[in-house]
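Slack export, channel: ligand-projects

TW: morning all. Re-posting the request from yesterday since it got buried. We need the structure predicted with the small molecule present, not the apo form. The ligand is flavin-adenine dinucleotide; the SMILES is in the block with the sequence. No rush, but it would help planning for next week.
GE: picking it up
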Amino acid sequence: MATEEKDILRGGQFLVKETNCEDVFTPEDFSEEQTMMKESVMEFNDREIIPHKARFEAKDYALTEDVMRKAGDMGFLSVAVPEAYGGMGMGFVSTVLTCDYISSGTGSFSTAFGAHTGIGTMPITLYGTEEQKQKYVPKLASGEWFGAYCLTEPGAGSDANSGKTTATLSEDGKTYKINGQKMWISNAGFCKLMIVFARIENDKNITGFIVEFDKENPNGITLGEEEHKLGIRASSTRQVFFNDTIVPVDSMLAGRGEGFKIAMNALNVGRIKLAAACLDSQRRILSTAVNYANERKQFKTPISDFGAIKVKLAEMATNAYAGESATYRAAKNIEDRIALREAAGNTHQEAELKGVEEYAIECSILKVAVSEDVQHAADEGIQIFGGMGFSEETPMESAWRDARIARIYEGTNEINRMLSVGMLVKKAMKGHVDLLGPAQKVQEELMGIPSFDTPDFSELFSEEKVMINKLKKTFLMVAGGAVQKFGPDLDKHQQLLIAAADILIEIYMAESAILRTEKNAKRFGEDSQSVQIAMSKLYLYHAVDIIEEKGKESIISFAEGDEQRMMLMGLKRFTKYQNYPDIVDLRNEIAEKVKAENKYCF
Ligand SMILES: Cc1cc2nc3c(=O)[nH]c(=O)nc-3n(C[C@H](O)[C@H](O)[C@H](O)COP(=O)(O)OP(=O)(O)OC[C@H]3O[C@@H](n4cnc5c(N)ncnc54)[C@H](O)[C@@H]3O)c2cc1C
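GE: finished. pasting the full token output, ligand included:
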């Protein structure tokens, strides 16, 4: 049955609309086809990547290229590519799950994979002309050619539209000449195609070009040496220099000055895929850590029996679970919106573009949350391994180094935090998400007398859902107050934006975990989900804490006197449990399950 418009939340609407658990997609909903894909990718990871970990760490760039080619042979590079261009044309959920399960062996491969399939290929499938797609996409989908994405320059990182690379039209109007320097280009060492962003004359915005790169006939393109990096050591990262590189005019991607839009939209897709790429790493880190903790004895006791280690196991499992819940929830929203737009007559290309753009807020939220969770997991993984964790001989050390980049590329986490709130405020201004109405209601509630009724919280998650609702009110109170105070100058108040983003992120992650568990409890029985229930409650508990802290910091910074007092009272009310969960018990339950299974098992 076709999904109806009314059934699908718009991007950002999770904040003001209640979602029924039946309406979220969870990893337990994978179809047979998706499950087969997942197993095939896991098997590939186990066979082609994991056993060669040492070679990746020793900067064996040729191995990365070789495994990429094998991934191409298996069809993994073409999951998201429409069948008309030699791809499998699978849905967005399948694209995301491929990124998830192919990425845990080493960050080197996952970066090469992400750069090629995401930012290296997607700009052409999303913005290319029919001729461009026919010419290039089949080669990229099969792995005959690899793609790279050249946006960053020495002077233009986060401020991506400020690049100095130029494209100059020839006198006969047939070609452009590209000159400039790009930096930190993933896959540069073995790519045959580059998406290059350059400025034409004094245009406000940059323009995208498809540039072929043949080492035998380099057309003015030279590469810097491989960068020596903290992590992802066998991912090829080089500077790329363009010296009078001539490209035909029809290599322009979309229109003149459209490059910034292309760059941003490619990054939206890249962000949710990057979040996915940090999921299986977390599962693997936890499984490896619990395995070690069960074996390692100190004081004649397996260290996994110590409360101090159980905390780590429980928190690692909980974050991974919440990350999975939120990533697949958003992935399916995107897939459904694409289907909806196609049903309404959009081409697949338009539908995909708009579908992903719609959920840009969620993509930023996921990128930040999951990249920080994997870093935390790797850090705790090292701690569980003790001194051995610090050794190159154990996998924790490289996992920690590899995880670090995820907070930097695809837009730094600072930029993504500010973007998530900025985009939401913009959507509200355009009337796409009604924040004003709900924010006014919160204002009225703040001035009213609170109810002293004792609610019945006997049903599963009834209190947690009330808490989520109250956390949403906290966001509306804080962000609404800040918008009122600073108006269009809000973007100058970065600390406030970042605090608001943290509130937004915690709401989305906590709600996603709860909805997933509630859905599964309803269909598989509550008993079967007791540990997942514990994880959902534990995640929420931390979310409430973070939100209280960030809310307080924000209110104090922009409100004064009576207004400040009223908001702080509201904050107290919105972050107060009727019955506090015993988080020590919750952690013990989660840790015991992980210990017994000797792996991440959810
Ligand atoms: C291993 C690796 C691979 C990469 N691969 C690619 C690739 O394939 N293609 C490509 O084009 N690029 C790539 N990049 C570049 C990457 O996207 C940039 O490094 C990133 O966007 C940040 O830019 P920057 O390094 O210039 O840092 P800067 O922009 O200089 O940022 C430095 C710090 O300042 C903060 N900051 C910057 N602006 C603001 C602001 N307005 N407000 C608040 N804080 C701000 C940032 O958050 C960061 O903490 C790669 C980078 C690395 C390290």
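GE: first-pass observations. The chain has a mean pLDDT of 96. DSSP finds 20 helices and ten strands in the chain.
TW: perfect, thank you
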